[in-house]
Amino acid sequence: MAQLRISAKDLGVFALPGFCPRCAWLKLHVANKLPYQIFPGIFSSIDSYTKKFISSFFEKYGHFPEWLGSEDKFVSLVKKLHHSNFNILDQTNDILLTGVPDEIFKLKDGSYFVLDYKTAKYTETQDSLLPLYEVQLNAYAYIAERTGLSPVKKIALAYLEPQTGLTHENVEQFKTGDGFVLPFAGKILELDLKPNKIPDYLKKVRELYDQPSPPQSKTECKDCQLLENLFKILFQK
Fold it and tell me: Is 8 exposed, middle or buried (0-12, 13-18, 19+ CB in 10 A)?
């Protein structure tokens, strides 16, 4: 049985209502070798800046920004998290589960709070990707509790909302000497903590990967339709 490696985020795909087993099988077998995969670097820059702001704010004021909104008392940030040591091998399915959350806070009662940033507007209607995020953060909690960061008490998303209400009347306050600023507002959304569900998802990953050929596509899967169109272009006579 070949050992697999899967990230917490990719594991979360298995929880989406529109999950397509054929797409998932292909991604598992080609790993990171899919073509046309481009991720804008600006989001990594925003994540890095957010982390720097949080840690600098804590070092200066001795507490975290009020918008984090927890009634718990934060003690510190857990630093030096890295994929080389923040991972867990599920021996039952021979799967290495990886992925590092944006932040883990240690609370006054000795427990931990796992937080991930999303650069997006928060809406009261359910985010279509929320099932993915819930599995992703529970996977982080699952890893944390098996790498010395136990118990995990809470998991949450921090939506960082770009504040775009600029008008000609207030434009001056956003101007700088060599450009302009874009402020963000934070909104916390706590998710259900249930890391005990992660082994079930890992079992699904193993069962899917071990199928000798791709399973049937989910009906109306747009990615599968695009793939079929690509095949037609490539192999047309």
Answer: buried
Distance CA 142, CA 200 (A): 12
**What's 197's domain CATH number?**
3.90.320
For the stretch 77-114, pLDDT in tens is 998 888 889 999 999 999 999 999 999 999 999 999 99
Would 219 be classed as within a structural domain?
yes
Asked if the structure places residue 237 within a domain, the reply is no
In the three-class reduction of DSSP (H, G, I as helix; E, B as strand; rest coil), residue 120 is classed as coil
pTM (two decimals): 0.91
Structural domain boundaries enclosing 9: 4-32+39-164+172-232
Token pair for residue 91? 């021996």
Nearest to 50 by CA among 191, 215, 184: 184
Continuous segment of H or E residues that includes residue 60: helix 41-61
Give the pLDDT confidence of 186-198 residue by residue, as tens digits.
Answer: 889 999 999 999 9
Please report whether residue 212 resides in a domain.
yes
- The three-class DSSP label of residue 123 is coil
- DSSP annotation string for 26-51: HHHHHTT--TT----HHHHHHHHHHH
3-class secondary-structure state, position 176: strand
> Which amino acid makes up residue 169?
E
- On whether residue 122 sits in a domain, the answer given is yes
- Provide the domain count of the chain: 1
